[in-house]
């Protein structure tokens, strides 16, 4: 597994340090808001578990599962495989995402959740790959862990064809792995 990695981009320590910083900001922001924290499955699970434990305020956990992605290329078409279970109308909602790439899935997620009329809706993404954004996507993430270059990364929840999610770091996959 680790031999398929070309370069470690973010070590476990760098990730945890940044999550602690974000935790202080999010704790202040949501102290009295009892937010619903919506994780977008599956890539977010590892980040989600670490991030919520640094938000030192009452909150509710919920998840959405979208599908659209296979291999390294986003198809653009989305389906909601599993919707949030909480009634978020009038609630403060914070979306947690693993990576903001072309923008297809976050745009879709935001549109979907907005229809449920939350009191507020903000986005926290661990990784942002702005070079990959599709033209016309204007959405901004409110909180970003790391802005990264245009490379395909795996680990810490992120996969390539469902592999590598359990690596403790975030690394760039060797091109020969996905060119095979
Ligand atoms: P977007 O819709 O193109 O912004 O990307 C959404 C999803 O694609 C993310 O939530 C990831 O699951 C996946 N994705 C995008 N870039 C990468 C990457 O570099 N590695 C692994 N998954 C990625
Ligand atoms: Mg994802």
Structural account:
β3 (60-70) and β4 (73-82) form a beta hairpin. The model has no long low-confidence stretch (mean pLDDT 93). The protein has one domain: Rossmann fold, CATH 3.40.50.2020. It has 4 helices and 9 strands, in the order βαβαβββαββββα. The chain has helices at 12-30, 45-52, 104-114, 175-179, and strands at 5-10, 36-41, 60-70, 73-82, 92-100, 120-128, 143-147, 153-154, 170-173. 24% of the residues lie in helices and 34% in strands. By secondary structure, it is of the alpha/beta class. The protein has a 6-stranded mixed sheet, sandwiched between helices. The radius of gyration is 16 Å and the shape is globular. Inosinic acid (IMP) binds at residues 43, 69, 74, 97-106, 152-154, 158-159.
Please outline the helices and strands:
Layout: E1 5-10, H1 12-30, E2 36-41, H2 45-52, E3 60-70, E4 73-82, E5 92-100, H3 104-114, E6 120-128, E7 143-147, E8 153-154, E9 170-173, H4 175-179
Parallel strand pairs: 2-3, 2-5, 5-6, 6-7
Antiparallel strand pairs: 1-9, 3-4, 8-9
Keywords:
180 residues, alpha/beta, Rossmann fold, 6-stranded mixed beta sheet, 3-stranded antiparallel beta sheet, 9 strands, 24% helix, globular, binds inosinic acid, binds magnesium ion
